[in-house]
Design a protein that fits this description.
Blueprint (H helix, E strand, L loop, with lengths): L4 E6 L4 H10 L5 E8 L8 H5 L11 H4 L4 E2 L3 H7 L2 E4 L5 H13 L4 E3 L15 H4 L5 H9 L6 E3 L9 H5 L6 E10 L25 H12 L2 E3 L2 E3 L5 E8 L6 E9 L5 H10 L3 H5 L9 E4 L7 H4 L8 E8 L5 E7 L3 H17 L7
Parallel strand pairs: 1-2, 1-4, 2-3, 4-5, 5-6, 7-10, 12-13
Antiparallel strand pairs: 7-11, 8-9, 11-14, 13-14
Length: 361
């Protein structure tokens, strides 16, 4: 495209914000015009604000180093300089809801990495390959907000994006019960090993709020639109345990599932191999060519080996076999800060642009 859309990053100095910076530095559709953060960083260049807190193993892009940080509360000023914003702020949920709605009402679309609006009835919460049809709610939301182009779209929790895609490929067989144990990387808490010495040689069997999100959010993704809102799916019943493990990146999930109409193992593998969505059909820049990859080896997927499959945007699956209590069990893996966070948000923006929801002001 000739003219790139101008992007604002709200919360651009944090872990997800840093990922967004790297993904957008040379993006074919988007360019970073504004980075905003809390008052502590305002007035500093991005390099000054982040240099000692850069958490990624790839360099900070030169193109952002001299950008001067603005205050996220400067809604009108920032909105005048951008076409849309990504929101990855670290604030109380009520404050996030308020700031995201302020930007939307200022006619600046918001793609949110936060949980604050995930269960707002007219806010789509989207995995682009799975429920892009929920974008239809944007028109409903605009009527509520009184906007012509402003809206909010939320990205779901990173923990569900390892196993929800694998189940989504099999929805025609009516999954009824799902048990999932997720083994989640420390980057999901915004930390690296030097920040968190207690995690070394340790496993923590609790992540605050994560199990509730893992059990509830898939039901909205699998829901349908009725009376101008998403009606959550009733089935399947989901039970989860979420465990923090000493891994830098990558959320691994052990999945157990029973179906109303049990498919064969061969049928499951065929569905996984062929499953794709609009991002693949449109060949969007951050869309994985192969969304779901199944490994035949008994010891795959492995977090260290496979989290970066399809540049961190693919889902890895392995160890599919029948189970004595459920119909089947298998293992899934996703990169939590790419597919699960920043990359998923950028792919959502790419699809929103392709569908005509994101345009130049």
């Amino acid at each position: 495209m000739d003219k790139k859309l101008k992007v604002g990053l709200l919360g651009g100095t944090g872990f997800v914000g840093q990922r967004l910076v790297t993904l957008l530095a040379d993006h074919p559709y988007f360019e970073i015009a504004v980075i905003a953060a809390s008052e502590n960083s305002v007035g500093k260049t991005y390099f000054e604000a982040v240099n000692n807190r850069w958490k990624l193993d790839i360099p900070m892009p030169d193109s952002v180093k001299s950008i001067v940080i603005k205050n996220i509360d400067q809604v009108d000023l920032i909105s005048s300089e951008v076409d849309f914003v990504f929101c990855a702020v670290n604030m109380p949920a009520n404050e996030i809801r308020e700031i995201e709605e302020k930007y939307a009402k200022a006619e600046t679309p918001v793609i949110s990495n936060n949980s604050a609006h995930r269960h707002t009835s007219d806010v789509p919460m989207v995995i682009p390959e799975i429920n892009a049809d929920h974008f239809e709610l944007i028109q409903v939301q605009r009527r509520r907000l009184g906007t012509k182009r402003g809206f909010i779209v939320a990205k779901p929790n990173c923990s569900i994006q390892s196993y929800v895609p694998a189940i989504s490929a099999l929805m025609q067989y009516k999954p009824k019960k799902i048990l999932v144990c997720t083994y989640q990387a420390i980057s999901g808490s915004g930390k690296i090993f030097s920040d968190w010495p207690e995690i070394n040689d340790n496993v923590i069997p609790y992540i605050g709020g994560e199990e509730e999100k893992s059990e509830q959010e898939p039901l909205k993704i699998w829901g349908h639109i009725e009376n101008d809102m998403v009606v959550n799916a009733v089935d399947p019943i989901i039970s989860t345990q979420c465990i923090r493990v000493p891994v830098s990146d990558g959320h691994l999930a052990a999945v157990f599932v029973s179906f109303e109409d049990k498919p064969s193992k061969e049928t499951i593998l065929q569905h996984w191999a062929s499953f794709q969505g609009k991002p693949q059909l449109l060949k969007l820049p951050n869309a994985p060519n192969q969304f779901l990859t199944y490994f035949e080896e008994n010891d795959r997927p492995q977090t260290g080996l496979d989290r970066n499959i399809e540049k961190g945007m693919g889902i890895s699956i392995g160890r599919l076999r029948e189970d004595s209590l459920f119909d089947y069990k298998f293992v899934c893996l996703s990169h939590n800060t790419l597919r699960g966070a920043a990359g998923g948000a950028v792919l959502t923006a790419e699809l929103l642009m392709a569908e005509g929801y994101l345009t130049s002001k």
